[in-house]
Design a protein that fits this description.
Strands 3-6-7-8-9-10 form a 6-stranded mixed β-sheet. It has a two-stranded antiparallel ribbon with strand order 1-2. The longest helix has 18 residues. It is α+β, with helices and mostly antiparallel strands.
Length: about 180
């Protein structure tokens, strides 16, 4: 029996999927020598966010999950947990999308990787001008909404506890996101 990641995956081997790839089922993440299953809590939060976006924008909303997007800067290719693209977003001849089409990103914290969500990813998303960046932490039961990117930094942060609606009506999303359905770890 073969243990470890599937062929073609592993440390240092990026997963390349076009921005049009369908929303995947819960997936395996590779950590160290073997795969680590995505936690139910993590996946349920992603589903809550995607459903809210579909309710607000319709079933054909351009929402991606765990799909590689190349952001400006060295080694800034990330696969956000949730990324909403502009309605008029298009792909180039190679099937790649443009980071400038991203209107919203949500990342759900995982133990051991949270520093990436609050550090390199936050900087890359702000540098790219992503208008709304949501970090959801199921361990603390809190969310942080970063908005108004300027010069590689978000200039406004709002902290919200699970159970309190997140008001994004003054952002390009024009959405109120309920968090009362977000499970905790």
């Amino acid at each position: 029996m073969r243990l470890g990641p599937p062929p073609g995956l592993g440390p240092g081997r990026p997963v390349h999927r076009p921005l049009t790839a369908p929303l995947p089922a819960p997936r395996l993440r590779v950590r160290g020598a073997g795969p680590v299953p995505q936690r139910d809590t993590h996946w349920e939060i992603i589903r809550c966010i995607v459903r809210a976006l579909e309710r607000r924008f319709g079933d054909d909303v351009k929402v991606k999950s765990d799909v590689r997007i190349d952001f400006p800067g060295h080694r800034n290719a990330f696969c956000p947990d949730v990324a909403k693209l502009r309605d008029d977003a298009v792909q180039d001849a190679k099937g790649h999308g443009d980071y400038a089409d991203v209107e919203f990103i949500a990342e759900v914290i995982s133990k051991g990787t949270g520093m990436n969500d609050y550090g390199p990813k936050k900087t890359a998303y702000a540098t790219a001008g992503v208008p709304v960046y949501l970090i959801v932490d199921p361990y603390t039961g809190k969310c942080v909404v970063h908005t108004l990117p300027e010069d590689g930094e978000y200039t406004q942060d709002v902290r919200v506890a699970f159970g309190v609606d997140i008001d994004l009506t003054k952002t390009p999303l024009d959405l109120t996101l309920a968090t009362d359905g977000f499970p905790r770890d």
